[in-house]
UniProtKB/TrEMBL annotation, chain A:
A Pfam family this chain is assigned to: Fer2
Organism: Roseivivax isoporae LMG 25204
Protein name as catalogued: (2Fe-2S)-binding protein
Xref: Gene3D superfamilies: 3.10.20.30, [2Fe-2S]-binding domain (1.10.150.120)
GO molecular function terms noted in the UniProt entry: 2 iron, 2 sulfur cluster binding; metal ion binding; oxidoreductase activity
Keyword annotations: 2Fe-2S, Iron, Iron-sulfur, Metal-binding, Oxidoreductase
The UniProt record lists the keyword Oxidoreductase: yes
Segments forming domain 2Fe-2S ferredoxin-type: 9-85
UniProtKB/TrEMBL annotation, chain B:
InterPro entries membership: CO_DH_flav_C, CO_DH_flav_C_dom_sf, Diverse_Substr_Oxidored, FAD-bd_PCMH, FAD-bd_PCMH-like_sf, FAD-bd_PCMH_sub1, FAD-bd_PCMH_sub2, Mopterin_DH_FAD-bd
Keywords annotated in UniProt: FAD, Flavoprotein, Oxidoreductase
Protein name per the record: Carbon monoxide dehydrogenase
Every FAD-binding PCMH-type domain range: 1-177
Annotated PROSITE patterns: FAD_PCMH
UniProt lineage: Bacteria, Pseudomonadati, Pseudomonadota, Alphaproteobacteria, Rhodobacterales
Superkingdom classification of source: Bacteria
Record-linked PANTHER family: XANTHINE DEHYDROGENASE SUBUNIT C-RELATED (PTHR42659)
Gene3D superfamilies: 3.30.465.10, CO dehydrogenase flavoprotein, C-terminal domain, Uridine Diphospho-n-acetylenolpyruvylglucosamine Reductase, domain 2
Signal sequence, renumbered to the chain: none
One term of GO molecular function: FAD binding
Amino acid sequence: MTDAFRNRIDLTFTVNGEQVEATVPAGRHLIDVLRLDLGLTGSHAGCEHGVCGACTVLVDGAPVRGCLTLAAQVQAAEVWTVEGLTDTGAVADLQAAFVARNALQCGYCTPGMLVAAKALVERETVPSRAEIREHMSGNYCRCTGYEAIVDAIETAARARAGEATE
Amino acid sequence: MKASVGGYARARDLAHAFDLLAAANGMGRVIAGGQSLVAALNLGLTAGDLLVDITGITDLRGVRVEGDHLLIGALTRHVDIGSDPLVAEHAPLLARAVPLIAHDAIRNRGTIGGSLAHADPAAEFPACILALGATLIVEGPAGRREVPAADFFVDVFETALDEGDILTGIAVPCIAADERHGIEEATRRAGDYAIVGLAGVRRAAGHRIVAFGAGPRPMLCGAAMAALDAGDLDAACAAIGGELDPPSDTQGSAAYRRHLAGVLLGRLAAQLGDPS
């Protein structure tokens, strides 16, 4: 079986703008490569079957589930986690709004929330509260309830659009 | 949990994918977006699979019109189905289904071919494909064949795909001028699989109403369709529950699902422009 199945996969991809080379087990999740192999523990592994959203990271600019993405499938992809997005300031306004509105308590869900919300606030139109709830429906918070999270995202979205907040 | 995988290989093209599946000796499994398969691996529902990753076969991605059909590559992602202008123009049912499928992060990786081949009886795309009367294009080591949607979905997670086959595309008849599409579903939370749902198409030739989450596969609802064709919405809403074979589970009883189907059919009929 030449050119056939492998148990360990050689990967080259970028994480937070830096090129990474790794050899990973075939079934390893992207979230585990990020957390366990690369030490980027900002993104969290929660339910591990795609429901809770704590592991949400960006792959080629789009939010994806780190637990439903095999690392083997991100060959040559560009991955961003909350660490990189913090360093570049890409989510600084969302982070400030989350803090100002107490939109986190234990913080476990927050990195995934920020990555998911980033995609929303980057759209051209300011989302309604219903649209924010719909967009964030794949990210669970078990501490705060969602009111403050929706408030924080709404504040950031309006500020980006140059609208005055209430 | 962590996924238990026997091995992984990236297919360069379809011929390579067929070779890999043959070499896997029955343990091969095609992976595309992985949004159902990796969840199943994580839950331990399947283990030791030899994964054949077809996502690098770029020919299988994208949408184009050919004659009076819309050809959708199996690797076209949900997010792209939802934003593609050709889909919006020629098969609006599929575009309308996209926001109902899971969440943004899932739609960014999940593919239409993966959803159809996985054949979850509560999923939206299989029901839409059946309502549209689409044709599934299946390729295998023995060649290419076309399978009508009505023959494709066999049972829970079971399709007409044989060992070594790959679903490569879907041919959807383009919408006619007087045709209407609609989809309705009930969920406890946004993005969940439907407790029960209905996909509907109204054509000059008659209605096609398909229920999902209401049996072992997407189900054409013949009695409800006949009543709608006769202009009797009340009779259709009364009939549809009796045509279904829904499960009872923590989301709802079979009786509740039957009742819900009648309620949803009333809403769907409004989308389809049927007189109430």
